């Protein structure tokens, strides 16, 4: 970095960067920047790849994270500190106004009325917990840890693969030191080139998770509308800024849009709260699927062969998408099918129950339902990013089929029969039921008959084993003092 102010390509003067680095690293800022770039840690490229622009004043938090990352001893696959800072920056990039008192009151009222309407549509009781209005940043704070957990299995595989491919290209850092860090912070295990690549991979993956989470915070309406249970406690939430942005240009008034979204949020919350196995079941399927994904080392090596490690954006691209092996095992395909079916059943149940609850009250319930269906089918940039991170699309492709199935079950057996299906994961419909909703009832009856026959056969075997004298019907040996008894 030159000691004389010069103009950057983007109009940012080097003197601004110099002043910022001196505020962090002191008089040795020039040497710190040089050594960081030699190790592939260019802060300006890091910020640009995260979509934060080139204003050095917006990068103080990121640079502090880089400094802590170099000194940290942890080896988590996703750097949660970097993810947090990037997510907060991205969430606020297009504005993140504080929720006003009037907005919070309107949200609480809508969520309260939504629960009253749902009482007539399902026997599942309200979720309980607080009714809240969140800003985008508050949504990030409440859900980011869940996104990190979802991405962690893939992050571990990708960073290990990156360390294998690029580790030999990294210089040893046994003798490297950076001002502002403890003596020896870069020696030992951090001096291992592969270990350093894992640290870099963790930071870049943290940036990706943060960027995707921050982008999602500008798209979601509540805490549950992505289909996965992101909260580990009961609560119902709406984001007024996003709800109002969605309502702009629609024929339906804001109050009606807010009510429709509130009903969907409360329906999701009831399901996740009162089906105790569902949250763990979904997250376990995501984890099982992600851990089964393998990395194509040849494809990754091809992508990073001529990479400039100071170009963090190129490193991000190399670590996401088109590096997953396509030859999934039969077990992994079965897991993915179960996961997609369960996500579709969740979305279809919420869609059907919400429609039942809103049709008597909202004039625009039908077009709003169709609009939400199309919006979920189209997805958005954040969902595409998570697809590249986790190798999994969040959109259930068969939610319409699932809604049709739930409607059929309700028509034939009532709401009790529909909601009773959630009593155990073994009772959930499968892809055959989504293909043929009309035959679901007959297949369930046949299954129950087979189970009854099996129970009867087992009972007959057990009864036969305990009938007769003594064990297994064998005669009881005579006591020693009985006539005819003998002693050994």
TrEMBL record:
Acidic residues bias: start-end ranges: 478-488
Coiled-coil regions listed: none
UniProt entry keywords in alphabetical sequence: Hydrolase
Pfam families: Zincin_2
InterPro entries referenced in this protein's UniProt entry, alphabetically: Zinicin_2, Zinicin_2_N
GO MF terms, alphabetically ordered: hydrolase activity
Superkingdom of origin organism: Bacteria
Entry keyword annotation includes Hydrolase: yes
Protein name: Putative hydrolase
Source organism per UniProt: Paraoerskovia marina
